[in-house]
Design goal:
257 residues, alpha/beta, Rossmann fold, 46% helix, 15% strand, globular
């Protein structure tokens, strides 16, 4: 197998694929030969990603899904199998903007929503993806998207930090439980990646990339969504066949300081 076709024949789900890292992941995985289910709660955004995949010669199918709703997640997996016949790998990327209040001032409704979308959804996706892998006879790869906040907390982000720490726990638990069936579960931990979410946070706080990036990256720049997507694609491929339970940081050395 060559580098270019490392995902040939594989069927992949990418959640939160309407923009940013999710959209880049769908495009990168399709470029390596995967047939990709582009999933997002925003239908227009998901269709735009799928159109870009098809324009580049790839195969994409859109399934709308609120990943915090178990019935919708179950339907996402079922529709994937109905369209493509099976499921081989998944990147659980969907997330929402972090909370912005210190613990003593937390809005618990907003806190719960972050936990639902950024943590509970990962559990739901893993549950139904693994069930499908087992129904097929075993084998499969899952990549959960965490964050540098999975290891290093930030102030006024208690829900996001708790959720992303939880993603690591789910990843390790899944890897332990299903390694005997040949199912691999890993995580990627993005750092400061140039996405609409990051740009919005910069604008809200009056910072520029030149001012802020050196504090978050040894390279002094923001990462590109495609750089995270390449890590996810590798972890979904047979090239990483001896890797499970691992959290791969894509953060230009931020966690080394």
């Amino acid at each position: 197998m060559t580098e270019r076709n490392r995902l040939d024949g594989k069927v992949a789900i990418v959640t939160g694929a309407g923009m940013g890292m999710g959209a880049a992941t769908a495009r990168v995985m399709a470029g390596y030969g995967a047939r990709v289910v582009v999933s997002d709660i925003d239908g227009k955004a998901a269709e735009a990603t799928a159109a870009s995949v098809r324009a580049a010669g790839g195969t994409a199918h859109v399934v709308l899904c609120d990943v915090a709703d178990e019935a919708q997640v179950e339907t996402l997996v079922a529709q994937t199998v109905a369209v493509f016949g099976r499921l081989d790998c998944a990147v659980n990327n969907a997330a929402i903007t972090p909370d912005t209040l210190p613990i003593a001032e937390a809005d618990m409704a907003a806190w719960d929503r972050v936990i639902d979308v950024d943590l509970r959804s990962v559990m739901l996706c893993m549950k139904h993806q693994i069930r499908q892998f087992l129904a097929q006879g075993g084998g499969g790869a899952i990549v959960n998207v965490g964050s540098v906040s999975s290891f290093r907390p930030q102030p006024a982000n208690s829900a996001y930090v708790a959720a992303k720490h939880g993603v690591i726990g789910l990843t390790k638990t899944g890897s332990l439980e299903y390694a005997p069936q040949g199912i691999r579960v890993n995580a990627v931990l993005p750092g400061a990646i140039d996405t609409p979410m990051l740009r919005g946070a910069l604008d809200a706080n009056g910072f520029t990339e030149a001012e802020f990036a050196p504090a978050l990256s040894l390279f002094g720049r923001f990462g590109r969504p495609e750089e995270v997507a390449e890590a996810s694609a590798w972890l979904c491929s047979d090239a990483s066949s001896y890797v499970t339970g691992h959290a791969l940081a894509v953060e230009a050395g931020y966690l080394t300081r």
